[in-house]
Amino acid sequence: MTTIERRGRRVRVLYTPEQIAERNAEIAREIGARAGPDLLVIAILKGSFVFAADLMRALYAAGLSPEVEFMSLSSYGAGTESTGQITVLRDIDSGVKDRTVVLIDDILESGRTIAYAKDLLAARGASKVYTCVLLDKPGKRAADIDADFVGFTCPDKFVVGYGMDVAHAFRELPFVGIVEGRAGEEDTDNGGGDGADGDDTAG
Ligand code: IMP
Ligand code: MG
Predict the structure, then answer these.
(1) Ligand 1 within 6 A of 190 CB?
(2) Element holding 123 (H helix, E strand)
(3) pTM (2 decimals)?
């Protein structure tokens, strides 16, 4: 079990860069098989930016020709629990009418974020809206939604890295990890609260 130290914290590796790359290649092939070659990929910022960038290249390797757009949605208030209220902070530029869309997010947790985005794009006339997440945390689902494409089913712990943050930190880690505690201290349980100041965007 690999652990690194950064910012005075210990972060335990949950999914390695190699495991993630392997899943990305598999997901890209699954998307190609179900969604066809001409897609509009919409990445929900900020947390999905690394996953989306790697997935775009995996889609290319799988023979697809996706276009990409970005959308920022707010959902988190001060804490790490979703408040349930979603608003569009930054919208996509392209129209989606009659197009096949693949919505990309880092984590599916309550499901409110992706359900909101999916309904919005369907209302704008997208012919099909698929959903794709790197991590599925099924334990806290509130909205009636499952992702069409999932990288990993994830334990109900607060994770960071590979684009995901706690209080804006750790997005640069090339792996997905769990913040375990202060460097040099005993392990503490990660229930999502320790140091998890949250983010004011669903990123
Ligand atoms: P939900 O599905 O609407 O509850 O929101 C999922 C969003 O919450 C994800 O896109 C992340 O931005 C954020 N999130 C949920 N769990 C975590 C976590 O463990 N680490 C970092 N962000 C998280
Ligand atoms: Mg997010």
Answers:
(1) no
(2) helix 112-123
(3) 0.90
b/e sequence 115-128, b meaning 16+ C-beta within 10 Å? bbbbebbeeeebeb
- Three-state secondary structure call for residue 152: strand
Q: Tell me the domains of the chain and their CATH numbers.
A: 3-182 (3.40.50.2020)
Q: What are the pLDDT tens digits along the chain (203 aa)?
A: 799 999 999 999 999 999 999 999 999 999 999 997 779 999 999 999 999 999 999 999 999 999 999 999 986 655 555 567 899 999 999 999 999 999 999 999 999 999 999 999 999 999 999 999 999 999 999 999 999 999 999 999 999 999 999 999 999 999 999 999 888 776 655 654 444 444 445 56
Question: Phi and psi (nearest 5°) for 105?
Answer: -135, 165
Regarding the beta carbon of 46 and ligand 1, being less than 6 Å apart is answered no
- Pocket probe for ligand 1: among 15, 71, 106, 136, the residue whose CB has the most ligand atoms within 8 Å is 106
Between helix 49-61 and helix 17-35 the angle, nearest 10°, is 60
C-alpha 106 – ligand 2 centre gap (Å): 5
Which ligand 1 atom lies nearest to the CA of residue 154? Answer: 19
> In terms of C-beta density within 10 A (0-12 exposed, 13-18 middle, 19 or more buried), how is residue 32 classed?
middle
Q: Which residues of 129-145 are buried (b: 16+ CB within 10 A; e: fewer)?
A: bbbbbbbbbeeebebeb
